[in-house]
Amino acid sequence: MSSSLMIRRPADGYLPKGFTPPATAGSGLNVPVDNLLKTPQFWLLFSTASLLATGGMGLMSVAKPMIQNVFTGSMPDLVTPTFASAYLMALAAGNLGGRIVWATVSDKVGRWNTFQGFTFLAAPIFAVSPFLINSCVMDPQGPMASVYLGAFCASTVLALSVMGGVFSVLPAYEADLYGSKYIGAIHGRFLIFASVATILGPSLLLNLRRGAESQAMQELLSKVDPQKFVHTFGVDVSNAQSLVEAKTLTISKLMTIMPPGTMDPSPFLYNSTMYCMAGLVTTASVLHFMVKPVDPKFFEKPEEEKKQ
């Protein structure tokens, strides 16, 4: 509160020593809010931001259970509750750090290049995550297991930094495209992307995981000894779905009566989700590649500006 009371508007024409304002993509004119939704740039950039943020929102919603479900069983000495908590803190730091670092980068290389870089960076991160998971789980005692785990954690933190960068770079990107005069109202309309990502990310990730879990459960049930199943759960295998719906039958419980050598599918339940996220970011890359400078016909005419 004290800091907010000390904020003052700088003097007219003030610039920090040695600072040269970067050239913007716009022409110095402004797009009225009434024309915003008529521009294809709004829908392309809105979709790009939504798809980029979806992966980060999804990761944040399941970060702790994911790290525990995927790695705790195979690397219990390393992936402890303390490790999981530290991983959550690293994700938060990535989100906050991305807002600072990527905003600075965008001042140097431009907003369009930064957003396109987001897509080129995030798509491989999500696509390679299943490989890192599989490498850890299949050989948890191997010399490279900790390296794969570290790479997974670092890459997901980097993915969260991209989401933070989207939030920090977007307002300046909007000003480059539409001018700064109406940027408050314009950004308010763009912020709807955050709501879309907040809903889409977790729900998509959880639904994909639920589908993968159901498929894995059916594969295990096809291999389980029917007599052991009846002895353990008190019903026939054909009635297993009712136990699943009641949450009395889970993969971890089913694994206790599976034949020796049966692979626990729990660490691989997020693979389809990661591939889907990679696909969404790739789509975002294609959409953003079509973002071009706004057509001059949408800008405010000089005579209109004088009336205001």
What's the count of strands?
A: 0
Radius of gyration: 25 Å
Spans of at least 5 consecutive residues with low confidence? none
Mean pLDDT: 86
| Distance separating the two termini | 35 Å
Helix- and strand-based class? mainly alpha
Q: Count of helical segments?
A: 13
What sort of overall outline do the alpha carbons produce when their principal axes are compared? elongated
Assembly category:
single chain
Describe the biggest sheet? none
List keywords for this structure.
mainly alpha; 13 helices; 308 residues
Structure notes:
It is elongated and about 85 Å long. With 308 residues, the chain is an all-alpha fold. The chain has 13 helices and no strands. 70% of the residues lie in helices and 0% in strands. The model has no long low-confidence stretch (mean pLDDT 86).
How is this structure best summarized?
By secondary structure, this protein is mainly α.
Chain-wise SSE layout:
Layout: H1 2-6, H2 33-36, H3 40-72, H4 81-109, H5 111-138, H6 145-178, H7 183-190, H8 192-221, H9 226-233, H10 240-245, H11 251-255, H12 271-289, H13 302-307
